[in-house]
Structures are given as C-alpha cells and as structure tokens.
Amino acid sequence: MNPPKILIIGAGAIGGFYGALLAKSGADVAVVCRSDYETVKQQGFSIHSHNLGNWIFRPSQVLKHAGEYSGSADYVILCTKAVEHIDGPALIKLAVDKNTAIVFIQNGVETEQKMQDAFPQHEIISGLAFICCNRLEPGEILHLAYGKLVLGNFPDGISPKTDLLGKLINQAGMTCLTTPDIVTARWQKCIWNAPFNPLSVLSGGLATQEILGTQEKLVRAIMQEIVDIARACGHELAADSIDTNIKNTYAMPPYKTSMLLDFERGQPMEIEAIIGNAVRAGRRKNVAIPHLETVYGLLKLRELQFNLSHKASPGQQ
User: Fold this and answer.
1) Which of 150, 173, 274, 282 is most buried by its number of CB atoms within 10 A?
2) What does the angle CA 276 – CA 277 – CA 283 come to, to the nearest 5 degrees?
3) b/e map 11-29, b = 16+ CB within 10 Å
C-alpha cells in the first residue's frame, strides 16, 4: 500500500505540528505556507514538543499555493484561521481531485456548511484540535501541552479515510479520536473557547490561569450559555462538561489563547466563528444568552477600535 498523500494548507503552528506527526507515521506530507515559505523550504519545520521531544519535519513539497501541488492528494487539510477574509474553498480547490477527502482543522461552530456547499461530491472531514501550540519563529513550532485531535465526517459518520487519518496520528504518539457526531464535538470545544478567547483580549492580555483564578463565576456563566445553545440545537453535551473544562484549565500551564495572539500580532481574530456563530444560534433558538451577547458586543467594539487606530497609523505594527 502506498503511503497516503496529504497536502496541508495553512502550515502554521497547528498545520505544521499535525503535518509533522503524519509524516512521522509514514505519510507523504506536503505543505502550503506563505510567510514561512523560504525558511521551511530550506530547513523544514523545527518541532519542540514537551511530550514527544524535538525533531525536524521536512515536507515532501513546500508550496506557495495549492495549484503548485504535484500529484493527486488523498487528503487536503485546511488549517488556516477561521476568519471572514479567508475563503477556504478557494484556497484548496486547485488541489482537490475527484478522490480527495477535504479536511479542515479549525475553531468554531456552524462552520461546515460552506465547505460542503463548495464540494458537494466530496468527502468532508471536520477536525478539532485540543492543543497548546504556538509558532515561535518562521518554521519553529512549540508544542506546550495536550494535542488531542477529534475527527468526524460532516454531517455525521466515520469513513475509512477518517479512520485511517486518526490511526496515523495515534501511531505518531498523539491521541486522535474519531466520532460519528462531530457537530456535537464542536459545541463541546466551544465551551472552552467562548469564555477564554474573548476574555483574554478584553482583559488586555491575561493568560487563562489569571482569568479563571479571578473570574471563575463569569467563565462558568458563559460556558453554561454555550451548553444551553447546544441543547436547543439538538446537541446534548455531557453533564460534567463545565466542571471538566474548569478542572483541566486549572491543571494546564498558563496559556495565551489563539485569539489573544492574533490580536497582539495585529491579525484578524476568529470572532465570528467562535462567538458570533454561537450568538446567532442562540438568537435563532430564543435562548437567553446575556453574558455571550455582552462579550460579543465588547469584542466587536475592541476590534473596531483596533482597526480604526491602525487605519489612522498605517505604519504601526
């Protein structure tokens, strides 16, 4: 059996790390990366993992865009941020063959339909990464903690291709679970993302431990509203979901959320995918979500203030 051919588009911290794991298990892994292109082309990715050690990942192809891919990919994995200005289907379409499974590992809820609408004849695999992982420098990735990946077909089920992808991740030493109900799993992850991502930005840069240590009541209230929305949408989450997330956050090292890192770097934040879509689902189902509504509104104001200040000072970084 030939090794599966995998193209990762958006090979930053998450894409680079999981690409390195897939390559460790024998897959032929190519990457599309823009800002890190020259470094990765020359040196590969330098992976520093607190769990798995340090190693160099040299992709089989290093590309600037999907149209440069040589061969027929078994999987195209999209790992870009789920932000409004990025058109995921457009980024991947030139590398999608008739037998290509389309995978996306991104945050957020109610995000899958756009991909299915663009590729109605293709297998769609939705992925969630539960990981503390940051890009330190071009081509340099630090894996701090966790790393579990959850995969499932959209709208439901577990296909042979999904099962194989999960086995490759597990073989490399990281946990990958497959689920026939990936939509519920997305709401499960949103329990953590909904409070910590926006509060890290609104607090002026506090890490997860500082937020939870002083505002556990607020964090729990936001989490409960996510549980209520998920239930109204037909996705019953585990009864201990909130307590488990609180316990795990206390146990993890102090961590800057992905939204905070984007804000500090002057990059677009995943506001709509993580918070906006949840708020709109709550409104649609007439769920009382006062904390989420407030956090969403404040975050949009913070985004507006940031955009206006950078427009006034275009040279500012």
Assistant:
1) 274
2) 90
3) bbbbbbbbbbbbbbbebbb
The Cα 80–Cα 258 span in angstroms is 12
Give per-10-residue mean pLDDT for the chain (317 aa): 93 94 98 93 96 96 96 96 84 94 94 90 94 89 90 96 98 96 95 96 93 96 98 96 95 84 88 96 98 97 85 51
3-state SS assignment for residue 246: helix
User: Which residues have CB under 8 Å from 137's CB, separation 6+?
Assistant: none
CA 287 remoteness from chain centre: 26
One-letter amino acid of 191: I
Full DSSP string of 108-168? -SS-SHHHHHH-TTS-EEEEEEEEEEEEEETTEEEEEEEEEEEEEESSS---HHHHHHHHH
pLDDT given at position 309: 79
Report yes or no on whether pTM surpasses 0.85.
yes
Structure-block tokens of residue 44: 């590969």
Picking from 151, 6, 135, the residue whose alpha carbon sits closest to that of residue 66 is: 6
Cβ 71 vs Cβ 4: under 8 Å: no
C-alpha 184/C-alpha 179 separation (Å) is 9
Cα separation of the two ends of the chain: 49
Residue in 280, 276, 269 with CA at minimum distance from that of residue 307: 269
CA distances from 36 to 41, 136, 137, 218 (A): 8, 11, 9, 38
Taking only the tens place, the pLDDT of each residue in 1-13 is 789 999 999 998 9
